[in-house]
């Protein structure tokens, strides 16, 4: 059948296997980054000076955007399982809008932290590590727009059905994973800072 991935690892498609490998790799990357963040915080006597800004409250708005994206992707899965193509396309576009909203929110959060980079300390690690953690996550969000765009294009052409929708499922898994990573990063920022 055209468009069907017949290569499989056990009962798993190669695409699913690839997504699992990607998520394991990202888990290692984010875990190492979080450990580096905590270690940097612990070993530096000057972490945050009084002239540095607090963590931006806009992080909660960013969290709402990630949750909205996840909900939209779950609705898209329900739509495709019920062969509701128009709703599927709408929910995929909504997920993309939430993703763009997340990135927009992060830009505002980064701008809020920018005065900390000019603090009166030689190496302002507090804002730098904030940018590192949130920027790494944002890069993965932006990277996720590519497969989401492909899925939107295929859904618009009505190429997904209730029995053939692996692309939608894999993209939903990716965004759910990024949502969990974001919650862990957010908790780390609030607890460690």
If you had to describe this structure to a student in words, what would you say it looks like?
The chain is mainly α. The chain has helices spanning 14-43, 58-81, 85-113, 125-156, 166-192, and strands spanning 8-9, 12-13. A two-stranded antiparallel ribbon has the order 1-2. Strand 1 (8-9) and strand 2 (12-13) form a beta hairpin. It starts with 7 loop residues before the first strand and ends with a helix.
Gross CATH architecture:
Up-down Bundle
Q: Name the beta content range.
A: under 5%
Mean pLDDT, all residues: 91
Number of continuous helical runs: 5
Query: What's the domain count?
Result: 1
User: What is the makeup of the main sheet?
Assistant: 2 strands, antiparallel
Radius of gyration: 19 Å
List low-confidence stretches. Answer: none
How many β strands by DSSP?
2
What is the topology, as strand order, of the major beta sheet? 1-2
**Relative helix content:** over 70%
User: SSE string, helix = H, strand = E?
Assistant: EEHHHHH
């Amino acid at each position: 059948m055209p468009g069907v991935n017949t290569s499989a690892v056990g009962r798993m498609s190669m695409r699913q296997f690839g997504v699992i490998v990607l998520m394991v790799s990202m888990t290692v990357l984010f875990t190492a980054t979080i450990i580096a963040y905590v270690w940097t915080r612990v070993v530096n006597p000057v972490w945050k000076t009084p002239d540095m800004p607090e963590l931006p409250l806009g992080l909660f708005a960013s969290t709402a955007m990630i949750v909205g994206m996840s909900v939209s992707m779950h609705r898209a899965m329900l739509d495709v399982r019920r062969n509701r193509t128009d709703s599927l396309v709408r929910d995929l576009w909504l997920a993309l809008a939430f993703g763009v909203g997340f990135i927009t929110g992060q830009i505002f959060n980064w701008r809020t932290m920018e005065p900390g980079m000019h603090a009166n300390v030689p190496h302002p690690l507090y804002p730098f590590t904030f940018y590192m953690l949130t920027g790494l996550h944002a890069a993965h969000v932006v990277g996720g727009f590519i497969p989401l765009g492909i899925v939107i294009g295929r859904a618009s052409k009505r190429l997904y059905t209730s029995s053939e929708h692996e692309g939608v499922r894999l993209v939903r898994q990716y965004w759910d994973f990024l949502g969990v990573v974001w919650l862990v990063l957010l908790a780390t920022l609030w607890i460690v800072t």
